[in-house]
Amino acid sequence: MTVRNRGALAALAAGVAALTVATLVACGSQPAEDVGGDEAANLATATPTPSASAADGQSVPVTVGELPAGAEIVPPVRLVIPAIDVTATINAVGINKRTNDFEVPPSVDKIGWYRYGPGLEADAGSIVIAGHVDSAQQGKGAFFRLRELDQGDTLTATGSDGEARKYRVVAREEYDKTKIPLERYFARDGKPRLTLITCGGPFDAKARKYRDNIVVTAVPA
């Protein structure tokens, strides 16, 4: 998934699972309606950056690859979502300097925390965790059922400090990858929130990628 930095924001090409996924399943083609979009938008206070655009079909936006300054960061290391039977290991990921790709863990049962954004200790900003929806070789990914989450569902993110932090889902949205609001989901400001992202919508077999992204927003419970 190729990264192209654009000022304060960048975007990932193809989508979280696009390099490995195929027509094994038609996941997410008919998700439930979006819920909580206004609430998710109100959590962010970032001013949209004109140069941050997904017009070329890029999907998951990221801030530039620089570690935030300040207090020691607490990476999330485990995510449990009872409503969709997820118990997954979280790896800290960044950008592959050789390929310029976003390094989502290759094993689809693991998920990746974008380490250049906030950690679990942060009192502001979006903590981003992305995962595969599926893979032609490995089958269903950890976030295969992410589109089933609904408002009020709870999840637990455990940090490297051993503390388990509970979150409550407030929004579930689906975006065409050309229309995802980049400034919202990778912002380092605004109220603290957890942002879970995977692919969804129709699968383009020729391009080997899904058209959309599924984005779930959760706040501290």
Automatic annotation (TrEMBL):
Tell me yes or no: is Oxidoreductase among this UniProt entry's keywords.
no
MF terms in GO? hydrolase activity
Signal peptide positions are 1-26
Q: Which parts form a coiled-coil structure per UniProt?
A: none
Q: Is the keyword Transport in the record?
A: no
Protein name as it appears in the record: Sortase
Matches recorded under InterPro entries: Sortase (IPR005754), Sortase_dom-sf (IPR023365), Sortase_F (IPR042001)
Question: Which Pfam families does the record cross-reference, listed alphabetically?
Answer: Sortase
Q: Which UniProt keywords apply?
A: Hydrolase, Signal
Please give the SUPFAM superfamilies that the UniProt record associates with this protein. Answer: Sortase
Q: Where is the active site?
A: 132, 199
